[in-house]
Amino acid sequence: MVCQNCGTACADGTRVCPNCGTVLVAPTYTAPQQPAPQPAYTASNYGQPSYQPAAPAAPYAPQPQTNVYVQSNLEEPVTIKEWIITWLLLCIPIANIILPFVWAFDSSTKKSKSNFFKAYLIWMLIGIVVGIIFAIIMAIAGVSLAGLADQYSFVHLPF
Length: 159
Fold this sequence. Notes:
By secondary structure, the chain is mainly alpha-helical.
């Protein structure tokens, strides 16, 4: 090993030059860089056609921007005029049963009106179920009261 500062020959493994005191750097071996060989692919290789570069693309042409967040007509709120007409139509017999189904499940009805009538139908179904349960309870109570009245009456009816 040779000192790069003063040129003195030093023994291998020495870290400091004995003549000038410079720190010696061990030479490092760097292999010459050669590109890796590329395999030659032809039409006969593996039955594949030879590589053909793609034609250059057309220059960039900006595409027209479409606003994804455009509010559709169905997203607009229902106006007061529309609500007044809706409630007047619900005053018509038979129409007040059919129209809530139409407005709840029609795809051309505004979202707020559709959601309102879906909730309206749910409440109507709950009211029907509660009404049926109430009618059953009242029928049971009426039958039991009729039995009590028959048991404690002085006049016995023939039936």
